[in-house]
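Exercise: predict the fold of this chain.
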Amino acid sequence: MPTHTPPADLFRQGLGLLLDKDTTGWIGLWAEDGVMEFPFAPPGWPGRLEGRAAIADYMRPYTDHIDLHDFPDLTIHQSTDPATVVAEMRGVGRLVRTGAPFDTAYIAVVTAREGRLTSYRDYWNPLVVHEPGADFAGSIR
């Protein structure tokens, strides 16, 4: 009988891949029909990405814009659904274009089934990367 990575472990693995700048590896954690949502997306930014290909298109340029160094203060809560966890954390690093510090809080509601991410609701403030003249906002719309 195959075993599957528990959602909390899969989430931690994904954070490690993001810190390693391994976007391809991170995308590989996703189910083909996975959904990523951004409930606080500002006008003109995607609020929902459907499918691994759409998620990949969105995430590929992130290392050109945000240089993540750590995810401190990580706390993962198991929900009543064994497939779903809620993660609280900070993402810290720098904005590549300007070198300005990047430090923002995240809450993510993540579901995984059969060892793949199937749903990721990302509650973060995307405006922290929207600087005058920055092209990050345009690259992720």
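Check your answer against the key: Residues 132-141 have pLDDT under 50 and may be disordered.
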